[in-house]
Amino acid sequence: xxxxxxxxxSKMCYGLTRHQTKKVAFDYAMTNDICPDKWKExxxxxxxxxxxFMSRHRDLAVRKPESTSLSRATSFNKHNVNTFFEKISTxxxxxxxxxxxxxxxAPSPILVKS
Length: 114
Fold this sequence. Notes:
- By secondary structure, the chain is mainly α.
- It has helices spanning about 1-10, 20-30, 35-40, 45-55, 70-75, 80-95.
- This is HTH CENPB-type domain-containing protein.
């Protein structure tokens, strides 16, 4: 499941750092009550866990982000932007996030005045 999450995040142009990946793994382990005691002490997954995880999931890779190339800079065009918004609209509809909420701000507190 974590590998799928990392792949999905990467496809959405939101790759996680090593530290963020270890933190997500820790949160997942805590939620499922399968967290090793060592992780609880350091509040994150260990480096050894990350090495093992990456060796089990060869389709994932840790890479330094590349600087923006000419092809990337020129790929910001109408077609690609429309594709992005189509994908995000699909996700918003799938998770029912398009319905307006009744309140958009917290109610004003009642103040004591003189």
